[in-house]
Design goal:
The protein is mainly α and about 400 residues long. The protein has one domain: Growth Hormone, Chain: A. It has 17 helices and no strands. α11 runs antiparallel to α16. The C terminus is likely disordered.
């Protein structure tokens, strides 16, 4: 394991491949709900376009983590990138909403296999004392791809049409595949993993996942994904377009600024967590994001919305990164792939239900209500986070 600031080559290869994939994923972020609405203005179907990203993953996240522990990281990563490529090409040729839903499902399924292995590899490579910094830096730079992709995709869609963006996403996914396929470090890490971890059964893996800290991390990520994908990645764009009358280019700018806050938080919160501990950083993240959700409904000023978006993204990034670190300390090393799979299963559940639930609320109850309900839902995590003590974690190096 790495114990200092000298990161292996594999780290940078994972960073490059993940950033390329995130860039492709971010390209459609500004207009996807609007495109879905144009294909079919049925609220539930628009919600399903977003939730389809997680639809297939709900059944495969945990198995992918188990397979990652038993078969090795490389095979699952390459398989995931291949499935993602098929999904992007299906989205590029979709002129019916049901085909767009299927393409999004395949795209999300493939991304799940890749990022499950990506996270587990970081846990494998780094000691707990530097893991927060390494993971925070990796995810911050990966999300820079989304930061660049969202406004770039909005501008491209304005001039070249929505579907051209999906072809660019296919190209970025293909680039990620080649980087992973040619990586010698990924091959060596897989061989080293097999030597280090003995074969485990599914029953043994599931027994190893009994941990209060892991359960808290899973519940927190599920509620956050309900809000993120239900409100911020589905309702928010429609709210900006239909209520505030912003065009796609402005929406892309707002989403890009929000992602900038997210990137800054993932970069900084890993370092803060290594120094201050997990609970303070998660608590601040929840409070900031919850307050900002309420603030979105209070004005139609572009400057105001941009500032709130930056802060809301920062809060969300702090939550995302610290929950990942909590996950890494909740289970033994040989169960990390399985733990990541369980964590991402709860994440997928939130991603599936959130868009459908909050689109129903947006259509049927009121267009500001999803933001207030989302803030209340985030606050339910505060007592859970406070309940986690040092005795619940296996690897503790920070106060």
């Amino acid at each position: 394991m790495v114990k200092n600031s000298l990161y292996p080559r594999l780290y940078y290869e994972l960073l490059f491949a993940g950033s390329s994939l995130m860039l492709g994923m971010g390209l459609s972020g500004a207009f996807l709900p609007i495109l879905s609405w144009e294909l079919d203005p049925t609220g539930l179907l628009v919600g399903f376009v977003t939730s389809a990203w997680f639809l297939a993953r709900i059944f495969t996240e945990l198995p992918s983590g188990l397979l990652s522990d038993m078969l090795g990281r490389r095979r699952l990563a390459l398989f995931g990138l291949t499935v993602s490529l098929v999904g992007t090409l299906m989205c590029a040729s979709s002129h019916f909403i049901h085909q767009l839903i299927l393409g999004r499902a395949l795209w999300g399924l493939g991304a799940a296999f890749f990022f499950t292995n990506n996270t587990a590899l970081i846990f494998d490579m780094f000691e707990p004392s530097v893991r927060g910094k390494a993971l925070g830096t990796l995810q911050a730079i990966e999300f820079l791809g989304s930061l660049v992709g969202t406004p770039l995709g909005a501008v491209s869609a304005t001039f070249f049409g929505y579907y051209s963006v999906f072809y660019v996403a296919s190209l970025m996914t293909l680039l990620s595949f080649f980087v992973a396929f040619l990586s010698k470090g990924l091959k060596q890490a897989t061989s080293s993993q097999r030597e280090r971890h003995t074969s485990i059964s599914i029953c043994e893996a599931l027994k190893g996942l009994r941990s209060w800290a892991l359960l808290v991390a899973c519940l927190a990520i599920m509620t956050r994904m309900l809000v993120t994908h239900g409100v911020m990645l589905t309702v928010f764009q429609l709210y900006l377009n239909q209520v505030l009358s912003y065009d796609v280019a402005l929406i892309g700018l707002i989403m890009g600024v929000r992602t900038a806050g997210f990137c800054a938080a993932t970069f900084l919160s890993g370092r803060l967590t290594d120094r201050l501990g997990l609970r303070p950083v998660i608590t601040v993240g929840l409070l900031v994001e919850g307050i900002c959700l309420c603030l979105y409904t209070m004005t139609n000023s572009l400057t105001y919305v941009i500032v709130v978006g930056l802060l809301e993204g920062f809060g969300g990034g702090a939550i995302w990164l610290t929950l990942s670190i909590l996950l890494s300390r909740a289970v033994p090393a040989r169960m990390r792939g399985s733990a990541v799979g369980l964590f991402r299963t709860f994440m997928a559940l939130g991603g599936i239900l959130g868009p459908v639930i909050f689109m129903f609320v947006y259509d049927s109850i009121g267009r500001s209500v999803p933001f207030l309900a989302g803030a209340a839902l985030l606050m339910t995590n505060l007592p859970l986070v406070v309940s986690v003590r040092k005795r619940h974690m296996l690897e503790v190096t920070s106060p």
